[in-house]
């Protein structure tokens, strides 16, 4: 059934795209209509044609018409006028037509409500249809008709659908709840009842949709989640991706109301600590002397954190972001660091995803710098980044700046300032200013750098520098009188109003430090007062007032002149400011008491401004990953995170009573399962476990391993009926969950009937699931192998026993290795537990025969071998005349390179032919084509006259004969040298049997085969000569041949490991056929060209 539902989903969701292509292929309009009038011609004739097809008696015509109509919708064309003709076919008996009619109605039912109401009885009948797809589609169309009069009908339909046997229909019922609530909010109480019922649903297909309905209708009803909390945590990995996002956000809010803060413990620790959260009792006592009760994490809290951890590897960026915000808001600070690697991985996504992720990282990096310091280089700006991403990365780099990395960052910022993107260059200057205030060691360096920027040709850069310098000078003005003088000179050239105003403010604020320059600046400003910007005029007036109070002899007349100009200015602000200042500083009869304090008012000590991150102000009040956080304003529908409670509410509300139906079912199967106490429900997450609990867990794991065998072998395993039935339910749930954790299968891809069975088994064996989850994480090898091979073995029952036996033997001999993934999935380190693997004592004859069939001879064994012929043919790297006495030769050792599997080993012999000692011989300036790599030899400190030394290098030529160029250098000189390999040196010889050779050759035919007929010299026709000639030309391995006239050679390319098969077949007379089979056709043809003269020459 799930297959059908998936197919329908694709058709429902992508029908427009698929059918649009089909419609595009069909004739869109009569040929007689000129193309030039296509934009203005009406579609009347075409639509008439479609209407006739829809009224036809033939289903094929109706189906074709519906495909074309849905194609029109996919192209964005309006097909609403066809609504009456389409709606007539809603009762069609053809299932394909009915599906497409529902796709159309879902699009236009809201626009054509009156016509859709005429078919309400048809939709009601369709709700009883035996086909689940029709029932679900009818409910979707019914909920799309937004007319208040049918609210009771919709309510009844939702209630019935919520009890439907099909999880797909129940999922659509959850979607309809939100539509009905938006249409009639008064139905809230009735809808909450349906939500409560659907929250208990066992299907992963329904979980995401019903939680979305919960968030829309009654997000404050936390009590509905209590009983379903553990189930949602355990089902999380199986839910579809968009459902996972909704559930994670809901559980984040839930956890903030139900658990105490895990950060109390971290208050004693450092801001970011890699150590385990739980430590020994002695260390706990030392660190928590002030705390009366040590913090112990609630098992349900730990369950949520542990079950969301694997989702950090999800392919969906939104899921990773959701888990990251959950860890940020819920996890102990010492554990939140694991999300940083996953978030940095998302920076390889599209620019939109990058922007959202960077916004969240910027907020995180303010509070916890240590999380992202190891990934500093990931935030370097690329020239191709858009401005929004550049500024976000710049923000993060500034947040991560500290004494250790500031020198590197300042060099990086120096490059950014030269950017053509002026907005970004200005942001960089602000970032330099923030670094200067945050890190006192580099304040002077930053200030000097900003002063140098004042001579920049770009006005925007100069203006921004002035503004930042102004703020920096306020922190320590006494030491920077020279900088103020330098900035005063810039007034003649700078035209940006903000920069001019900043300079004037600085001169006015520190006019006593520049007593000679300040009056002259005021004189110049007064001369051009009327042409200045309003912002600059205000600062000129302020400067005049300050100079009037401190140096009235020189500036009294100038100030009065400026005040007179301001009195008649066009701007209200200038006129008001002028009147206010005149009354304040110029004493007269009307002056009040304020004029006595004018000097204190204007020249008061002002606090230095704080250069803070814009993210620090108020953005962190929003939950990470939300629209409100990105916009920095509260969006509609935003649900705030509550503060941690001082005392945790009663955890027993999350305990689920044992369902009686489960007991009856297990009794009917064979044996009633033993109930396990609720306090050990999550025993694997508790810190202090008894040895007996661990043993019981390992036993349950081994039982599940036995069961996988017993389940497929049937009666061959001698287990009692009751025990096998118990193990069947346990292992089914364990294997399903294990597979889901590794492959991230969405629930829509699995068969829905199987899903129902799987969730039913999960409910019946929930206690065993929770206990075995830790052993699943710590010993994933055997579990993953058995999961991935179970389906193949069920298809081949004959080989199942033999494969299982072989696996058992291997597992006995080889100790279990722990899987290494992108993230370590173990929360508290690995738990070592011995897993007993049952092996039958006696092998049946059929089993022995099957085991014999699994011998190594059936699989091809191709291993790299040592070369047969070690050539000493050397090539000149540097002649002694060109190298001023330094000479170098090289040859290919034809051995596997010690520096890398993809590199060719090169031996370089360096000689000193001079009469003086050569020092510091090394390699510089490697000029390699794209993709090529080189491992240099270590620098040679000195080489005495007449001496020589041989060093080893590794070069990855990427299976090409391109030249590797570099410089061989001494202390005084640099010499350009090149190494170019022949094709034969790009190979490593391999050994294989003749049968394997023939098999591989059969796979590499057609375009992968090149051949040529050559005339062989008489003395080259013997077997030894052919071997010598071929192996001397190319690093090939000899393959044994049963025929005298056939000579076979095999090798693999060093870089890619592609096979290279060479065959020399001697014919009658003196001719031979040379055949080369390889995937690398270019290398094959070059090798053929090189081997031909080798064999034909005498």
TrEMBL record:
Keywords: Cytoplasmic vesicle, Golgi apparatus, Membrane, Phosphoprotein, Protein transport, Transport
InterPro entries, per the entry: AP3_beta (IPR026740), AP3B1/2_C (IPR056314), AP3B1_Ser (IPR029394), AP3B_C (IPR029390), AP_beta (IPR026739), ARM-like (IPR011989), ARM-type_fold (IPR016024), B-adaptin_app_sub_C (IPR015151)
Low complexity compositional bias, start-end: 11-23, 716-732, 765-785
Biased composition (Basic and acidic residues): 704-714, 733-748, 786-796, 803-813
Main localization, broad class: membrane
Compartments where located: Cytoplasmic vesicle, Clathrin-coated vesicle membrane; Golgi apparatus
Region (Disordered): 1-23, 672-813
Pfam family name, one: AP3B1_C
Annotated family: Belongs to the adaptor complexes large subunit family.
Protein function: Subunit of non-clathrin- and clathrin-associated adaptor protein complex 3 (AP-3) that plays a role in protein sorting in the late-Golgi/trans-Golgi network (TGN) and/or endosomes. The AP complexes mediate both the recruitment of clathrin to membranes and the recognition of sorting signals within the cytosolic tails of transmembrane cargo molecules. AP-3 appears to be involved in the sorting of a subset of transmembrane proteins targeted to lysosomes and lysosome-related organelles.
PANTHER family: ADAPTOR COMPLEX SUBUNIT BETA FAMILY MEMBER (PTHR11134)
Name of the protein this chain belongs to: AP-3 complex subunit beta
Native source species: Pelodiscus sinensis (Chinese softshell turtle)
């Amino acid at each position: 059934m799930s297959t059908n539902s998936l197919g329908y989903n694709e058709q429902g969701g992508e029908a427009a795209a698929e059918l649009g292509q089909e419609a595009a292929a069909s004739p869109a309009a009569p040929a007689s209509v000129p193309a030039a009038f296509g934009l203005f011609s009406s579609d009347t004739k075409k639509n008439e044609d479609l209407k006739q097809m829809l009224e036809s008696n033939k289903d094929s015509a109706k189906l074709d018409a519906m495909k074309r109509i849905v194609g029109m919708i996919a192209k964005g064309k309006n097909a609403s006028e066809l609504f009456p003709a389409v709606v007539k076919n809603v009762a069609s008996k053809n299932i394909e037509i009915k599906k497409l009619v529902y796709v159309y109605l879902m699009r236009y039912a809201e626009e054509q409500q009156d016509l859709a109401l005429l078919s309400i009885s048809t939709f009601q009948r369709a709700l009883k249809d035996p086909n689940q797809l029709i029932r679900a589609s009818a409910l979707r169309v019914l909920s799309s008709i937004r007319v208040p009069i049918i609210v009771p009908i919709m309510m009844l339909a939702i209630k019935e659908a919520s009890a439907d046997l099909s999880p797909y229909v129940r999922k659509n019922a959850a979607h309809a709840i939100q539509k009905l609530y938006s249409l009639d909010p008064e139905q809230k109480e009735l809808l909450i009842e349906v939500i409560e019922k659907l929250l208990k649903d066992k299907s992963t297909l329904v979980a995401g949709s019903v939680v979305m309905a919960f968030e829309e209708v009654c997000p404050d009803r936390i009590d509905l989640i209590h009983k379903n909390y553990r189930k949602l945590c355990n089902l999380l990995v199986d839910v579809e991706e968009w459902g996972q996002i909704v559930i994670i956000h809901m559980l984040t809010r839930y956890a903030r109301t139900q658990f105490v803060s895990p950060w109390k413990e971290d208050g004693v620790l450092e801001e970011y600590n890699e150590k385990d959260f739980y430590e020994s009792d002695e260390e706990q006592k030392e660190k928590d002397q002030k705390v009366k009760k040590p913090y112990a994490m609630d098992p349900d809290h730990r369950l949520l954190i542990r079950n969301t951890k694997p989702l950090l590897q999800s392919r969906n960026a939104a899921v990773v972001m959701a888990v990251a915000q959950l860890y940020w808001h819920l996890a102990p600070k010492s554990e939140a660091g694991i999300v940083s690697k996953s978030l940095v991985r998302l920076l390889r996504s599209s620019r939109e995803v990058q922007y959202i992720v960077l916004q969240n990282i910027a907020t995180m990096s303010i509070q916890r710098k240590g999380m992202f310091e190891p990934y500093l280089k990931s935030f370097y700006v690329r020239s191709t980044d858009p401005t929004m991403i550049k500024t976000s990365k710049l923000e993060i780099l500034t947040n991560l700046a500290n004494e250790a990395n500031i020198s590197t960052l300042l060099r990086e910022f120096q490059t950014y300032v030269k950017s053509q993107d002026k907005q970004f260059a200005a942001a960089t200057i602000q970032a330099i200013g923030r670094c200067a205030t945050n890190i006192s060691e580099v304040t002077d360096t930053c200030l000097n750098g900003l002063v140098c920027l004042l001579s920049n040709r770009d006005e925007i850069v100069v203006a921004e520098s002035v503004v930042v310098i102004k703020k920096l000078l306020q922190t320590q003005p006494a030491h920077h009188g020279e900088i103020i003088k330098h900035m005063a000179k810039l007034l003649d050239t700078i035209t940006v109003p903000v920069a001019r105003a900043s300079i004037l403010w600085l001169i006015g604020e520190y006019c006593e430090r520049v007593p000679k320059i300040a009056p002259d600046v005021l004189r110049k400003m007064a001369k051009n007062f009327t042409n200045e910007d309003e912002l600059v005029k205000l600062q000129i007036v302020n400067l005049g007032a300050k100079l009037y109070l401190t140096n009235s002899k020189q500036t009294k007349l100038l100030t009065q002149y400026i005040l007179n100009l301001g009195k008649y200015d066009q701007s209200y602000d200038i006129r008001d400011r002028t009147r206010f200042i005149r009354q304040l500083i110029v004493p007269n009869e009307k002056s009040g008491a304020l004029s006595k304090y004018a000097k204190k008012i204007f020249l008061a000590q002002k606090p230095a401004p704080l250069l803070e991150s814009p993210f620090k102000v108020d953005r962190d009040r929003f939950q990470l990953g939300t629209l409100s956080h990105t916009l920095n304003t509260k969006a509609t529908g935003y649900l705030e995170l509550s503060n941690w409670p001082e005392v945790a509410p009663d955890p027993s509300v999350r305990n689920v009573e044992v369902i009686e139906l489960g007991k009856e079912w297990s009794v009917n199967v064979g044996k009633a399962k033993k109930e396990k106490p609720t306090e050990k429900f999550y025993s694997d997450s508790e810190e202090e476990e008894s040895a007996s609990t661990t043993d019981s867990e390992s036993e349950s794991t081994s039982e599940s391993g036995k069961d996988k065998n017993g389940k497929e072998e049937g009666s061959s395993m001698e287990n009692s009926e009751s025990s096998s039935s118990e193990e069947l339910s346990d292992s089914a749930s364990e294997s399903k969950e294990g597979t889901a954790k590794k492959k991230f299968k969405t629930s829509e891809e699995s068969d829905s009937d199987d899903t129902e069975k799987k969730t039913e088994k999960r409910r019946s064996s929930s206690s065993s699931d929770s206990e075995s989850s830790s052993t699943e994480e710590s010993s994933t090898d055997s579990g993953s192998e058995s999961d991935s091979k179970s389906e193949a073995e069920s298809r081949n029952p004959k080989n199942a026993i033999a494969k299982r036996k072989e696996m058992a033997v291997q597992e006995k001999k080889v100790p279990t290795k722990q899987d290494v993934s992108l993230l370590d999935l173990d929360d508290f380190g690995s738990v070592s537990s011995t897993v007993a693997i049952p092996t039958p004592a006696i092998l049946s004859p059929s089993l022995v025969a099957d085991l014999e069939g699994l011998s190594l001879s059936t699989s091809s064994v191709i291993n790299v071998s040592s070369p047969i012929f070690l050539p000493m043919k050397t090539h000149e790297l540097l002649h002694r005349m060109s190298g001023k006495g330094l000479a170098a030769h090289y040859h290919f050792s034809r051995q596997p390179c010690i520096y890398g599997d993809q590199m060719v080993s090169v031996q370089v012999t360096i000689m000193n032919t001079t009469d003086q000692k050569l020092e510091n011989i090394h390699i510089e300036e490697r000029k390699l084509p794209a993709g090529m790599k080189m491992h240099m030899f270590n620098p040679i400190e000195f080489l005495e006259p007449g001496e020589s030394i041989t060093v080893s290098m590794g070069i990855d030529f990427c299976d090409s004969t391109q030249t590797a160029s570099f410089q061989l250098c001494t202390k005084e000189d640099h010499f350009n040298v090149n190494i170019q390999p022949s094709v034969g040196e790009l190979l490593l010889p391999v050994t294989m049997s003749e049968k394997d050779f023939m098999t591989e050759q059969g796979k590499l035919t057609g375009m992968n085969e090149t051949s040529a007929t050559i005339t062989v010299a008489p003395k080259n026709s013997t077997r030894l000569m052919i071997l010598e000639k071929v192996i001397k030309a190319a690093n090939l391995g000899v393959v044994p041949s049963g025929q005298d006239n056939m000579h076979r050679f095999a090798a693999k390319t060093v870089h890619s490991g592609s096979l290279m098969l060479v065959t020399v077949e001697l014919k009658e007379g003196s001719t031979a056929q040379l055949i080369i089979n390889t995937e690398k056709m270019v290398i094959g043809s070059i090798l053929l060209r090189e081997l031909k003269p080798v064999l034909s020459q005498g």
